[in-house]
Amino acid sequence: MKVTLWGARGSIAAPGHDTLRYGGNTSCVEVRGSDGTILALDAGTGLRALGLSLPHHVPRVDILLTHLHMDHIQGLGFFHPLRDPDCEVHIWGPSDEEMSLREGITRYLSPPLFPVHLDEMSCKLVLHTVPGPPERVGEFSISGDRVCHTNLTVGYRLESQAGVLAYIPDHEPAFCSDGSLDAGSITSGYGLASGADILIHDALYNGSEYERHVGWGHSSMQHTFEFGALTGVKRLVPFHHNPSHTDAQLDQLIAETTASGDWPFEVVPGREGSVFYLGDAQQEH
Question: Which member of 111, 137, 170, 275 has the greatest number of CB atoms within 10 A?
Answer without folding.
Answer: 170
